[in-house]
Specification:
Radius of gyration: 28 Å
Strand content: 15-25%
Mean pLDDT: 79
Number of strands: 10
Structural class: alpha+beta
Order of helices and strands: HHHHHHEEHEEEHEEHEEEH
Helix content: 40-55%
Number of helices: 10
């Protein structure tokens, strides 16, 4: 459709300029508005294409993490804390550790990746001195974990699978020292799950800003479903699927790259989903989608930009007219 509009505008312009008698001033007006229509049409079309591609990017982002990456980010955060002079100063001068924990977390890879995580600071008596956590959690296991910590090691990272029923807790610990003086401990932990809908587990004001192509679409418009053994295991977005809807996702025709695009009507609205098969037997399937914009919305987007173009063109015409009048 966009090609038809684009080519039609070019032919109409060519016809008017070649076979109709207009003065140069009118020719410039026709060229300006014709170019504006073609440009805005292409802009609207490619914005929709970018939104479509962002669904694929979100799906790949949700499935790319593994426990090794989480362990590296925890190790890296602990290393940065060890070399942080503000931490040593806070222990030495008994400053507010809570605010410092938050500042360190916001500068960490864990925050940048919007991973549910925490930072705990303990004194040399193993009592909690200050912390920050991006999710609600129980601290009852912390003391036992500190008891097992080998102070001869620089950094210890462990996987604790039984702390939460449906998630794995990966946590690391190291000691804080000023030269040879022992000051306390710091623990960094993160929640790992196979499909991590991290923007669902973390308050919106703690989420890192989206970057790149994934920022082309507002997360509030995104619907996400994770199917496990033919049932919905995780979901994001205020929409309900019937059993027939679930079958459409499960029985989708996947390409050799284990992916497909699916158009489906949900609650009488048309949605576009990028569907990714995560296992050969279709026991694990991830679907990321958005509501398709109808012609009314498309025209609205078109005229919003075209109106600005028209104002600029008319102002330019006015300036030229005033200049010639002088």
């Amino acid at each position: 459709a966009i090609r038809v509009v684009y080519i039609s505008v070019l032919f109409i312009l060519a016809y008017l300029l070649l076979f109709m008698s207009f003065n140069n001033f009118l020719k410039y007006i026709y060229i300006s508005f014709g170019a504006s229509i073609a440009t805005v049409s292409l802009l609207t079309y490619y914005n929709l294409e970018i939104e479509k591609e962002s669904l694929k990017t979100i799906a790949q982002d949700l499935t790319r993490s593994n426990q090794n990456i989480y362990q590296f980010m925890i190790y890296q955060t602990l290393k940065e804390i060890q070399n942080n002079e503000n931490v040593i100063e806070a222990y030495e001068q008994n400053k507010n550790i809570y605010s410092l924990a938050f500042i360190i977390w916001t500068k960490s890879l864990l925050h940048n990746e919007s991973i549910p995580s925490f930072i705990n600071f303990c004194d040399n008596g193993k009592k909690l001195k200050g912390y920050f956590s991006s999710f609600n959690r129980d601290y009852s296991f912390l003391k036992n974990y500190l008891e097992d910590y080998d102070t001869t090691k620089d950094i210890t990272v462990k996987i604790l699978p039984n702390i939460f029923s449906d998630k794995t807790l990966i946590t690391g610990i190291t000691s804080i020292k000023n030269d040879n003086k022992f000051l306390g401990y710091v623990e960094v932990g993160a929640l790992y799950e196979e499909i991590n809908l991290r923007f669902q587990n973390i308050p919106e004001y703690f989420l890192a800003e989206q970057q790149g192509i994934s920022s082309a679409i507002n997360l509030e418009r995104v619907k996400i479903f994770y199917f496990h053994d033919g049932k919905i295991s995780r979901e994001y977005g205020s929409i309900l699927l019937s059993q027939n809807d679930i079958k459409k996702f499960i029985n989708a025709d996947f390409s050799k790259y284990n992916e497909t695009w699916l158009n489906i009507f949900l609650d009488k609205e048309k949605y576009l989903f990028y569907v990714l098969k995560l296992s050969d037997d279709k026991s694990k399937i991830l679907a990321v989608g958005k509501e398709e914009k109808d012609y009314t919305w498309s025209l609205s987007d078109f005229f919003k930009v075209f109106f600005i173009h028209s104002v600029i063109i008319l102002l330019s015409i006015l300036v030229v007219a005033l200049w010639n009048y002088k």
